[in-house]
């Protein structure tokens, strides 16, 4: 893997570790309303807290939340939603894609027509409709992202599996009368993983971005537990008044996460196809 790929992987792992350790790294629990002080609202970066001797290195928002603490907790939610929805969509899409490639005929036609219908709708539109019907919540937004993204994995898995099923080792496995599940899971799927992992890295960035968009619009997570998208939305009205830090710092963190995911996906693509390395 290229240096950019390793750098993005290490940085993404560091951000994930910081999100997991947020309760210990953060100086404040931004979700505990009892610990917030309205007198600390909208303080600029580097300001001292009025009720204790701490320092708000990235300032505070309109509710008096420490922006650094809120970003760590918001990053944890954004990554958790993105990773969980990506894993669920990957699992569902791979299962359906492998079944379509293996059985062919009407099974393949049925699954692929559903995929075509699914991909004809923009992911943001489908997620908006589902969340408008079910309401906000972590589980609801994970299901919405799952419904919006499984078709990408199904089509990719089917395409890769169709190529593998034409190879001699699959024909030999059939002649040995190995069970279908064993051929698919132990022989076909491992050879499809490089392509699937590349798509998963791209879709992870898309899932995090889509969750941030939905939260920015007020259809994602609850206001009491803001993710990065909702943190950006909370400070949007203060941008023209000079209080830039409420939106800019969460926005920069979101850009870093998405950039790492895309660089990692590009490195995985080059690793899967060495011909792409020189392009």
UniProtKB/TrEMBL annotation:
The keyword Transmembrane helix applies. InterPro entries: BP-dependent_transpt_permease, MetI-like, MetI-like_sf, OppC_N. It comes from the Bacteria. Its main location: membrane. It holds the Pfam family BPD_transp_1. Residues 75-265 form the ABC transmembrane type-1 domain. It is found in: Cell membrane. Keywords: Cell membrane, Membrane, Transmembrane, Transmembrane helix, Transport. The chain crosses the membrane at residues 77-102, 244-265. Belongs to the binding-protein-dependent transport system permease family. This is Peptide ABC transporter permease. It comes from Jeongeupia chitinilytica. The lineage of its organism: Bacteria, Pseudomonadati, Pseudomonadota, Betaproteobacteria, Neisseriales.
